[in-house]
Amino acid sequence: MDFALNEEQELFRTAIRKYMTDLGKTDIARSVIDGKLEVVTRVTAGFAEMGISAIPISEEQDGLGLGALDLVPVFEETGRVLLPGIQLETIALAVPLINNYGTQVQKSNLLSKVAIGESTISVAWYEQNRGLTPKSFSTIAGKTTSGYAVTGTKTLVAVLGNPDFFITGAQTAEGKSLFLIKASDVASRKILSSIDETQQIAQLTFDQAPAELLGELGEATQMLDDALLHFNAALCSSMVGGMDELVHTTTEYAKIRVQFNQPIGRFQAVKHGIVNMKLDLETARSLSYYAAWAVENDTADKQTAVHSARSFISKAYIKAAADSIQLHGGIGFTEELDVQLYLKRARYYENYFGSVRDSRKKTAHSLGWHTKSTKQTPVPVF
Amino acid sequence: MDFALNEEQELFRTAIRKYMTDLGKTDIARSVIDGKLEVVTRVTAGFAEMGISAIPISEEQDGLGLGALDLVPVFEETGRVLLPGIQLETIALAVPLINNYGTQVQKSNLLSKVAIGESTISVAWYEQNRGLTPKSFSTIAGKTTSGYAVTGTKTLVAVLGNPDFFITGAQTAEGKSLFLIKASDVASRKILSSIDETQQIAQLTFDQAPAELLGELGEATQMLDDALLHFNAALCSSMVGGMDELVHTTTEYAKIRVQFNQPIGRFQAVKHGIVNMKLDLETARSLSYYAAWAVENDTADKQTAVHSARSFISKAYIKAAADSIQLHGGIGFTEELDVQLYLKRARYYENYFGSVRDSRKKTAHSLGWHTKSTKQTPVPVF
Amino acid sequence: MDFTFTKKEEKFRSELRGWLEQNLPEGWLKGNRKLPEDSKLYSQFLRDWQRSLYEGGWAAIAWPKEYGGRDATLIEEIVYHQEMVRVQSPPLINYIGIHMVAPTLMQMGTVTQKEEFIEKILTGEQVWSQGYSEPSAGSDLSAIQTTAVKKDDKWVINGQKVWTSFAHVADRCFLLTKTEKSEGKHDGITVFLLDMNQPGVETVPIVQMDGHQEFNEVYLTDAIATDADVVGEVGKGWKVLIALMLHERSGIAAQVFTLEQQFNRVVEMAKAVQVCGVSLIEDPFVEDGLADLYTRINGAKLNYYRNITHTLKNGKPGPESSLDKLLVSELTKELFDFAMTIQGHAGVLMAEEALFDSDMQAQYLASFGATIGGGTSEVQRNTIGERILGLPKDLGR
Amino acid sequence: MDFTFTKKEEKFRSELRGWLEQNLPEGWLKGNRKLPEDSKLYSQFLRDWQRSLYEGGWAAIAWPKEYGGRDATLIEEIVYHQEMVRVQSPPLINYIGIHMVAPTLMQMGTVTQKEEFIEKILTGEQVWSQGYSEPSAGSDLSAIQTTAVKKDDKWVINGQKVWTSFAHVADRCFLLTKTEKSEGKHDGITVFLLDMNQPGVETVPIVQMDGHQEFNEVYLTDAIATDADVVGEVGKGWKVLIALMLHERSGIAAQVFTLEQQFNRVVEMAKAVQVCGVSLIEDPFVEDGLADLYTRINGAKLNYYRNITHTLKNGKPGPESSLDKLLVSELTKELFDFAMTIQGHAGVLMAEEALFDSDMQAQYLASFGATIGGGTSEVQRNTIGERILGLPKDLGR
């Protein structure tokens, strides 16, 4: 029985935190707000140097062949400073997709470049006024002599740092399928204004864009559902990092801010408010660790582990940021403090690839609540 | 613009409160727990003496011909002391049903007796494992030469004080219909054990019980929906009375109870907890007043007024009682204090003739949210 | 109970409504409600609007007729707010002057102060700001550190104010200073009517988390005031401040009606926005959440009506206004939080790209100010606990 | 990370499981778990059960072998609790003696005390109660008023205790008294090992809101103790109390696993109960609420596992146990509140007439004790804020 990151993982955390501190913590995010997008390229290079982008890539493709648990300290620390960019999309979504469903050639071409920081990949799935698990795409892929040609418009695509490839979903005769499209083959790109200005999202139009099939035709939903377990586990870590920082800064502020001749942390409204944030943080961290462990070990309960974690943490992160603003009082409402950036990031992630309600529904289904056969074991597995 | 009870209504409140105090406040409820059910008969007589049971009955039937607003002080004050009995069922459900749908003969036979305290009437609607608005009844009514004969089993019927009549729902060829059945014609009665021991509920079995049709055949749902507006408005007042008493006693306790050398009301966790109860109480009272006003004046928004009030107050009452137990600490967990009785009463009412979810659904429908045509007025009517 | 208006009140409403239709800025009623972005043009636009209100007799309806008001009843004031909210009228640039400073001067100002300021406030010739909060004195105003020291017949003022609304456009500031070191923490405070147009006053805007700049920091470096600028007595400024705050008898009305309007807008969104061809409102969770919000928002409005009734019967408002403030501000936050959630991932889109309302996301961010400004929710809960319920005083108060 | 058990731990589990199958009271595993209602029979039943545990070597597994324990590891203790919760074993009548009093005596008792009490605690021959709280000393134990005064070599004790668990069946009480008036509020407190079988001790049961009588008021009227009954030093009882409280290293385990079991029971109910032919769990609001509760209850269990890991690595538990206690008790309340709501109006039915589980309504009522007993949630939040987060001490502490 050992429910903690191991020593190596904690050492890795220390290294990443030091790197983030050297980069000025949230300065990177604020640079993006100021339009200095080049910082993101620098971070990608730094990530490669530290071996972060190589973590989930197998040794054949110049990676480290490590698992989801090794990403926990990485994304907690990047989440702590609101690191902008598409690290999550590349490392925790595109890589598992290519790893699990790509051909040998695709793996060789794409993954080793990701590992050494020469490539980033984003995912273009969402279409306007459709759900996150659409029943069909209006984007369509037609067969060509050399592969496929994709036509349609995707939106809310994360594009910060200019990814080289997009994994996109399109309708084929065989059903919804995934394709790889070179960024240079995108017909047009329109940057959209987002509540989280530390990120950059765009609407992409494909016009007969040359596309390579990823995985089997008609299997898009199943492939994405599977890869999203990796993504959501990593996203949870990122949100936990943000929550941890919020608890920390709010606590420190409550110790030094004096009103009515008392540090405000002495007032129970403030003290208990921070304690409630702390309780949520602990639960969030436990759930995120367990989700990563379940993904790494491909356990039978990994669906439950990931979706339940996501359902809790998406909501708890927003609440932590909102409460932190309130507990900071007037200064918390200013652009000067970082706490508002955490709120905007939390909001940005709230419904990313699925809502809280979606996650709860998936939790219920994965627990077999809607099938007559499944029975709970009376004693918890542990 | 005058949003308050009028002077007469407030005077009436004072009189009823005095009467309840003379009866020993919650002593009446505790007597019922101890099996001394005769207290209920005494209360019925007292009600008649004070003219309470005559309020909504027209002058033709020896009543006072007053409206829903005049019942507000009555039920706030009976709710405040958790008065046991079926006053709500008789005065705010059976009376409106008979008044609106009964024949002249039924009105003459039944209502004047209610007015002078010689009769109480309960409603037997619920069947086991059915919703509160069942699609069909397993209880059936067959035509006989002199009227109808009803056969079936009803449950969760409020019977404290032995009502003389039951209004019940049964299936006929023409659809769900309402019938009047004499208590003496009930085949068997089984008292059920309830979380609120100050009330008495029973399972009733009808075996070819002679029944008189009330209103038109097949109209049970519509009649009940309409009469439940009266009932729910009155029920809301009763719950507001309970909440008011909870806020009062909890506040007083927080002023005198000393821990850590401080009256506990000085601690923000306690102070703000009580303030939150107070906020809910104010909202509950406003909503219940407005609901009663809308029913009395038969306004276009009466559905919205009543269902929205009920949806809020059912939940707020439970929360107020639960929070009051917590704020009282250990003593709040004992049978000695009344606060637990309020919790049990609140729970008893939570789903009575409809859940919070049901009330919200009805609120949404009455506001026309699901029809394309309805449009909100930009300026509130007031 | 009676929720109808008298004929006189209805006449008042239709008179105002008619005036607004004629006098609102060009295109306003058709939805062209964008204010100039340039600070000077913005200020000029709002000064013009106030001038227009003044000329129509609508700038200060609650003032006595002798000062140019209408002696409006409380109900007329409420009707006024309903109508102003309904048309989403431009903000009143001299809100502080009209609703707070002038009534206070009428009550306790010198003859000279009345003559010098009241009319200019009404016409909008002179715009006022308020200078209470400081970096170390937010919820606890008694902790202010800005000093005013008498030197050769002049008061020399030094310190820093924060959250000073309208300071960047204001001519005068209702300024709280410390003139004596004192035992009692509410003693030694003096209120000045500070001239903002002098070298010792520097104004720096505060950028809010929603990007707006409605408030300012004001740095006071040897700023000068005279004895004629003192309101009430030297050292008795706390009383003046309390008097000023009590002058907003219809204060919460605009917020109550605005909240209701915002709620209706969210319902419109839930009807209009479709995902895979189905309106959001057809989702039972959206329906349920909105029904709950409807109920509580309507409850808050009804509470306000009960409090008005109380005020009408008793001739003066009770402490219940802190109850209204708390409920309305918390509900505003909850409403927009819910509105964000139901929009799904497309809810991150702002401004022109927004899913439904170009302003919804900004209003969400702005809502965080509601439970902080004008007394945090924590302070409101203390006030309610102590003043309404009679619970013992908090630590440090 | 590693969630597996070692072979040794698994062997421990199967040994215990085998023993339970053989030794639980007749019919227990088949669901016949009703305890005798008569107070004497109840007490005898539980004493028999503890005797049986003792004989099997399962009464005090964490105790050192020299005292008759098994020197069980923390993980073995957890396995023990899992298995005990799984079979819903009868309560341990001498819980206080085994988990609190005896370990404290091992640490700081006199040789005589060890000899006189420890073995009798283990066998169940001597049942112990705890006497801390008083009517005026609930959350604030330092405010106790029960006095012990030395007269001719005897201590004469007067006062009233409340919430004294097991007092009606206990032979001895671990009693907190005031022996000196003192400045420091934790000074002057002395702990006695009071003999309950004497005329000066009167026990009156407290009826809880769920109808149970698990606690008592104890009236002490010239009750007698001797110097030999004092634990540690006279006047230094606060230290003894703290030591005693720290002895429950696996304290929250049973509650964590019980909560999980209760949750599973509610899910079973939601599957089994049908309204108009449809299971409750098919209602999206029921599904959503249960998924939320599942997540937070599982999160609380995982928090507990993280804390255990921490304890294993650091050799001693940290202040995180107050975090576990707070979460588990609040979730217990929430779970049953939700379980009540989803049952609809039939949820008011109790006992035999209950919709699904004859015990569900009683458990709902009992859940209100969870956030009060053993330190209220308010006190837990203070402890977490001060001891874990380092926030300043509260008013009056």
Rounded to an integer, what's the Rg of chain A over CA atoms? 21 Å
Largest sheet of chain A: 7 strands, mixed
Mean pLDDT of chain C: 93
Determine the CATH superfamily of the largest domain in chain A. Answer: Butyryl-CoA Dehydrogenase, subunit A, domain 3
CATH fold field value of the largest domain in chain C: Butyryl-CoA Dehydrogenase, subunit A, domain 3
Kindly give the count of domains of chain A: 3
Helix content of chain C: 40-55%
Keywords (chains A, B): FAD, Flavoprotein, Oxidoreductase
Protein name (chains A, B): Acyl-CoA/acyl-ACP dehydrogenase
Family (chains A, B): Belongs to the acyl-CoA dehydrogenase family.
Cofactor (chains A, B): FAD
Identify the notable features of this structure and list them briefly.
heterotetramer, A: 382 residues, alpha+beta, Butyryl-Coa Dehydrogenase, subunit A, domain 1, Butyryl-CoA Dehydrogenase, subunit A, domain 2, Butyryl-CoA Dehydrogenase, subunit A, domain 3, 3 domains, seven-stranded mixed beta sheet, two-stranded antiparallel ribbon, 15% strand, globular, disordered C terminus, C: 397 residues, four-stranded mixed beta sheet, four-stranded antiparallel beta sheet, 10 strands
Describe the structure.
- The complex is a heterotetramer, with 2 copies of chain A (382 residues) and 2 copies of chain C (397 residues).
- Chain A contains 11 helices and 9 strands.
- With 382 residues, chain A is α+β, with helices and mostly antiparallel strands.
- Chain A has 3 domains: 7-115, Orthogonal Bundle (Butyryl-Coa Dehydrogenase, subunit A, domain 1); 121-218, Butyryl-CoA Dehydrogenase, subunit A, domain 2 (Beta Barrel), CATH 2.40.110; 222-366, Butyryl-CoA Dehydrogenase, subunit A, domain 3 (Up-down Bundle), CATH 1.20.140.10.
- In chain A, the strands form 2 sheets. In chain A, strands 1, 2, 3, 4, 5, 6 and 7 form a 7-stranded mixed beta sheet that branches. In chain A, strands 8-9 form a two-stranded antiparallel ribbon.
- In chain A, strand 6 and strand 7 form a beta hairpin.
- The longest helix of chain A has 37 residues, at 220-256.
- Chain A starts with 6 loop residues before the first helix and ends in a 16-residue tail after the last helix.
- By secondary structure, chain C is of the alpha+beta class.
- Chain C folds into 3 domains: 7-93, no CATH class; 128-238, Beta Barrel (Butyryl-CoA Dehydrogenase, subunit A, domain 2); 253-388, Butyryl-CoA Dehydrogenase, subunit A, domain 3 (Up-down Bundle).
- Helices cover 45% and strands 14% of the residues of chain C.
- Chain C has 11 helices and 10 strands.
- Chain C has helices at residues 7-23, 39-56, 74-86, 95-108, 111-123, 237-246, 253-272, 284-314, 321-342, 360-366, 377-388; strands at 128-131, 147-151, 154-161, 172-178, 189-195, 201-206, 215-226, 230-231, 274-275, 278-279.
- In chain C, strands 1-4-5-8 form a 4-stranded mixed beta sheet. Chain C has a 4-stranded antiparallel beta sheet with strand order 2-3-7-6, with no helix packed on it.
- Chain C is globular.
- At the A-D interface, helix 7, strand 9, helix 8, helix 9 and helix 11 of A face helix 3, helix 7, helix 8, helix 9 and helix 11 of D.
- Chains A, B: Residues 228-355 form the Acyl-CoA dehydrogenase/oxidase C-terminal domain.
- Chains A, B: This is Acyl-CoA/acyl-ACP dehydrogenase.
